Each structure stands twice: as C-alpha cells, then as structure tokens.
Amino acid sequence: MSAPGLTGADAAEVVWHDLECGGYRADLDLWRRLADEQIDPRGSAPILDVGAGSGRVSIELARRGHRVVALDRSAALLAALAARSGGLAIETVCADARELSLEETGFALCVVAMQTLQLLGGPHGRREFLARARAHMRPGGLLCAALVTAPETFDVASGDHPPTAESARVGRRLYISSPSRVALGARTIVIERERRIIGPNADAPRPAERDTIELDRVSPASLRREARAVGLRAAGKFEIAATADHVGSTVVALRA
Prior knowledge:
Elements: H1 8-22, H2 28-38, E1 47-50, H3 56-62, E2 68-72, H4 75-84, E3 90-94, E4 107-112, H5 123-136, E5 137-147, E6 154-155, E7 166-170, E8 173-184, E9 188-198, E10 209-216, H6 220-228, E11 233-240, E12 249-255
Parallel strand pairs: 1-2, 1-4, 2-3, 4-5
Antiparallel strand pairs: 5-12, 6-8, 7-8, 8-9, 9-10, 11-12
C-alpha cells in the first residue's frame, strides 16, 4: 500500500486509493476471462485499462501474459503502478480518458472498471471518451464498462448504520476511511467518506477530512444508445454481485 518514491499529498493519494479501491476483487474473474477470450495468445494485441489507478486490474492481466496500456489522469497513482509492476508488460499513460490520443491503436479489449465511466462529466464526456476509444480499437474489439445503478443509500448523520470502515497502517500512521453517506439524486449518485489519519502522535490527531465523489447516473440502455452513436454495437452484459463491502455492478459490453 505504500508508494515508494512518493511523498506528501502524492503518497497519501495512493494510500487512500489503495484503501478504498485496491482491495476490490469481485470483478477480476470477469476481466481475466474476457482478456483470455478476446486476445489470441499467438498475437500481441494490447489491452487498454481506463482509470487504471495504482494497477489493480492492469497488474492482474499482465501477470497472465497480456500486454496492457494503463491510462489514468493521476500521475501519483501511475507512479505507484509502475513501481509495483516488476517488469511486467505495462505501459502507463497519464491523460484524461475524454482526450484519449495514443500512438498505438488496435486494442482488443478496453476495460473500464469500478464505475470510471460514471466520472466523465455527463453524456458529452462519455460520448467523447467512447468515440476516442472506438478509434483506438481493432475491428471486433470489446469495450466493457462497469456501472452502478442502484446502490443502497444511507446517511450516518441520520442515524443509519454504515458499512465497515477500512483501515491500513502505513509506517507509523493509521489511515481510516469510513463511509458516511450514499445518496441518489436525479442525475448523480453522491458517495461520501470520512478520512482520518492517526499517529504518530496520538495526542495530536489530525482532523478528519470529508471526501465526496459524484457519479453520473447511467443506465445500461442509455449507455448503449450513446455507444451506438459513435459506432459501437451492444454485445451483452455481465452482472457482478455485491460483496459485504462493495455494491454490485452491471458490466456493459460494446463491440467495435
């Protein structure tokens, strides 16, 4: 969970990302299966991992012998990924997915895990990404995007019981991330967490910080319509069951 070579805010960004996202494994079987099915082992067609973060999916697929391009807009997370890759065939690219422009094309599989597609700023942002991704894919390539559509709502301030807090000790500090609210709006899903760092001086704890994420509300049907407008065809969907700590999701498959 540590980030060698990173300090200050960059190192903390990696710790929080790993704590809140890095332990999620319910979707990995699906990504492994799709990669193995979609890519001819005799070829070298690459996989594009959009919103790769610190490497949760990229490293898993590269360990199976696949070549991966890991895209994220966080340089700190990509630096952690590179430090952890251990010589695996992973190229990191720091860029906004809506401005995707790579020299390499011909991607056989594009993975958009953990609701990354719902962070692109509405229909226009999604269309920008989908059009650019389509231009980078080979004919018959598969783009698969995970959506959360109906999370369980709660509000700790109203007395609701929250999911279990996640914690990790890094050096002499204890990092604690506590979910505090999930709310459904007309167009967004709001997810709030309270983050605390304890130590090394227990007598002077740091004040808690509130982290808020807003996901666009996107249905599989609306995503298919947006994709069809840029030349991507519907290719089915997959359901990922909820776990004790994470909501379930629907993975929409789109064919180039």
